[in-house]
Amino acid sequence: MKLTSEQVANIESEILKQVRAQPGISRIALSRKLQLAPSTVGNYVGRLITEGFLAESAPAGFEPGRPPTALRLDPDGGQFIGVDFEARNIMAMAVDFSDRPVKQAHKIIRESDTVAQIIEKIEQAIAEVLPDNKSRFLAIGVGVPGFVDPVKGIAIHYKYLNNWRNVALAEPLAKRFGVPVYLENNVRSMALAEMWFGQGKGVENFLCIGIRSGIGAGIVAGGQQLRGTDYRAGEIGRWRCPWPRRTAARFFRGGGASAAADVELQEVASVRAIVEALERARDAKEKSLLTSQTEPLTFADVQRAARQRDRLTLQVIEFAAEILGWAVADLALALNPSRIILAGPLTVLGDTLLSPLRARAEEILGSSGAGVPRIVNSTMGEFSGALGAAALAVHEWKPKR
User: Fold this and answer.
1) Going from the N-terminus, what domains does the chain have, and what CATH number goes with each?
2) Residue 287's CB: how many other CB atoms inside 10 A?
3) Is the pTM of this model over 0.85?
């Protein structure tokens, strides 16, 4: 029976995914994995080699006279671009066909930026990392903050961007750059990066908690990402959180126990919330290394003060860490992951954040008789979401037939 062009593209896409997952795999092993005749796999592989997507080399133990059978991705097969953004930053990264980073770009989103200006900056970031050979530009992946409809290619809503509602992204970007565009929630993109390249590689059940202007969780169960019915799984930033009795509590939005029932997790434990709390403490003339600074605080200031063991800064970070520990414990009880990965700027604080967070999670889980998952910081840096978005494009893209 003659296969349709779509069926052929699906088979070739699956071959590329298998080679990507297992560099050096042979045609025989591929035929077993895909349950196809070796001759059939050989035909597809031959075409992918001719088109520059695959290359072959002699495997270990190569015997003279036998044809080489080890398959690998050809780095020159094409490039993918990943874009990751949130309330303040746009990160873009290009990767070659073997997933190696090639170029990266960074744009700042200002509080006054309109939707049109943000989209223009996204386009500028993409343009800066375009491959020199446009014919080998294959696809774009975009990690979108907040609610997203990946099927329709629409960013539905994100509370920390002005008027960010029902923004069509996929179609305009596809028209502008002439390649397929795939959308996903940006924390799920970060989880993809961890799953394929980082702390989640080889881990069947883990969570990636992205902490930036907002907070979300990418959930991987049985090696698969969970999206939820309306693609809203992992929106933990909207959880109403408990309010520890700590001195630093009065500097956070809500200001005290009476209002705490209505405070979202991301209003207390995000990067933005920590910076805002220290701004309030500075305005209240609290003693701190930050008091003398006249410019608006940035997270770099928080990081510097934490390194110098500024007492007020450490109190604010510890308060946020305790609440994150509560969220981590609740997620662990609900989903029973073997690992929880923290991603985003807060990871640069190291044990200053991680130690009180772990202690609170262990306290809650211990009192519940539950095991404690391994809690670690991501090691992938600020472009992890962009790399994950590029990986999304890699995963979704199929050869044209």
Assistant:
1) 5-73 (1.10.10.10), 77-196+384-396 (3.30.420.40), 204-377 (3.30.420.40)
2) 10
3) yes
